[in-house]
Amino acid sequence: MKQVKINLTDELDFNEYRKQICFFSQKITSFRREGNSLIIECEDNANTDKIEKKANDALKKNLESKKEDIVIDEHLKKCKYHNDFYRDGFIKKNSGGFVLLEGDAVILYEFFDNEFRKIAEKLDAKEERYPILLGIDTMKDTGYYRRSPQYTMFCSDVTEDFEDLEKMSNASFVDKNLDEVIQIPSFSLSPSACFHVYEKYRGQTMPQNSVITLNQSVFRNEGRLNWEEFGRLRDYHVREIVFLGTQEFVEQTRENIREEVMTFIRKMNMDAYITVAADAFIMPKMIKYKKYQKMEKSKYEVRVSYDKDHTLAAASLNLHGTAFTSPFHIKVKGVDNPVSGCVGFGIERWILVFLAQYGTDSACWPDEVKKFIRQKG
């Protein structure tokens, strides 16, 4: 086993930097922080010089793009935090970034989705349902492969050949030689709920400023060494609100949703704040755009505490400009340059931070939640 040692600085946001580490090389097996040093463990045949260079380059890019957080709004609360909810009968955590909900956790899922749907209904949103898969051409038009390729999860069909299908009947073959019997992918699992909306309305002219809402499964490869981080999920659900129209309409809609979210947080008495944020770019050439996003305030995040030192992003509120309306040729009647925005609420993440603050005893939960449970019978 080989090691690479990287010197860190106090100015580095290590929580952001650590998301990149496993993407320096497939040969990396683990990493740990020791004071102001990062220790990367690698396989014996790893090119440690190349890994060290990538690590230092990424560190430099992160420091260059660093910008102080701007808090837009907050609701502070002293919490007694809980960590006993990963258990059978409530939430079960599997390796690889999966959680399974049972019992009252299922009711919490319904509660949060219902609350966020009500925000969409106040905006006269149209509810729609979409499949999970997105075509490769759709993904190309979103620009996602260029901006955040690390999250991509492709879907492949088996080759349509009896000989290959016979090979698959041998269990050991599936373990060792699966790549011999699968086709080049034609689809991706959806990494962002709003992409489906843009594909649906491709080439269309919408009659007016519009709001659409959906509950969508989304999938992201956060990196093989990152799944132990709290709330880091490969497969989760989002209540999405997408809005298209004039610049004024889109900006005001995001502001209206932001106010509704803070009203909800105060009603639930949860320790949380809304901050100016940036997408989790990890490609060195893209990291500089974090600074631009923060300067333009195009992305807000709702961050909710799960212990005294850490918060989790449970929702994002985004302005897209023409990044999607242009490549998908979406028009709005009477609008010269229509733009779009979206807000996504990660349902499982809300459940996790809620349980971290309130625990699993439903008698101690807020009245709004207890009322919902009674109504469910």
UniProtKB/TrEMBL annotation:
Domain of life (superkingdom): Bacteria
A molecular function (GO) term: catalytic activity, acting on a protein
Name of protein: Aminoacyl-transfer RNA synthetases class-II family profile domain-containing protein
Species of origin: Agathobacter rectalis
